[in-house]
Amino acid sequence: MSNRHFEGFAHPADELSAYIFSIDTFIISLKNEEIVRFVTDAPEDFQQWLDDNGVRNVNPADG
Would 35 be classed as within a structural domain? Predict the structure, then answer.
């Protein structure tokens, strides 16, 4: 895992706008207004990667 990429996730951090985590799925808004869903075996690591890269958590009380 590099700072720009998370292993298994198709989009680099600089393409991401915001995210929300629900049950076991991350719902991510891309800067091009596309919505993608991502499920990982390491949700805490992925959320930390998103936060480290300044991707806005739409519902920070959930995380």
Answer: yes
Domain count, the chain: 1
pLDDT in tens, 33-57: 999 999 999 999 999 999 999 999 9
59: exposed, middle or buried (Cβ count in 10 Å: 0-12, 13-18, 19+): exposed
pTM above 0.70, yes or no: yes
Q: How far apart are CA 59 and CA 61, in angstroms?
A: 5
Q: Side-chain half-sphere of 44: how many Cα atoms within 13 Å?
A: 0
In a domain, 63, yes or no: no
